[in-house]
Amino acid sequence: MAKPKALGPADSTAAVDAFMQALAHPLKREIEALRAALLGAAPSIAEGIKWNAPSFRTGEYFATTHLREKRGLGLVLHLGAKPRELPAGGLAIDDPARLLKWLAPDRAMIVFADLAAIEANQAALQALVRQWITYV
Questions:
Q1: Residues contacting 125, CB < 8 A, separation 6+
Q2: Cβ pair 62, 77 in contact under 8 A
Q3: Residue 100 within a domain
Q4: Which of 11, 75, 112, 126 maximizes the CB count within 10 A of its CB?
Q5: CA 81 to chain CA mean position, Å
Q6: Phi–psi pair at 123, nearest 5 degrees
Q7: What CATH number corresponds to the domain at position 129?
Q8: Which residues, 6 or more positions from 24, have their beta carbon under 8 angstroms from its beta carbon?
Q9: Which residue, 83, 76, 80, 108, is CA-closest to 94?
């Protein structure tokens, strides 16, 4: 599946590059590593700036970095801006590394303390993302 087309100027890698260039954040390296991991999870994933943060989409946005997380760098997995009907039994996401903290039936968060945590959990993160995007 090909990357989705940009919906507007903020829905592009160029927008994220510009955002990152201007960003003064202590976890900038971690944000870049998380960005690379998400884009590497599936060829259908594109990026953009949504909710004033680097965010990731297929047809709709499904993940947004949480830049104000106090325990490190957060990533919120969601099903887009609009509520949608969930499958019977909810989202079936296999999480053997136990990265997900469920915030709601359609939203979960992952917190990475540092760059080492992102690198150590990259394969698990990418497996979660590949499962998650099947619901978007």
A1: 37, 38, 41, 99, 110, 118
A2: yes
A3: yes
A4: 75
A5: 14
A6: -65, -40
A7: 3.90.1150
A8: none
A9: 108
Can you give the pTM of this predicted structure? 0.91
pLDDT digits (tens, 9 = 90+) for 19-72: 999 999 999 999 999 999 999 999 999 999 999 999 999 988 999 999 999 999
The answer as to whether 101 is a domain residue is: yes
- Residues linked to residue 73 through DSSP beta bridges, in sequence order: 112
Amino acid identity at 97 = A
99, two tokens: 């990265």
CA distances from residue 118 to 55, 84, 104, 136 in whole angstroms, order as listed: 17, 30, 23, 24
φ/ψ of residue 73, rounded to 5: -105, 125
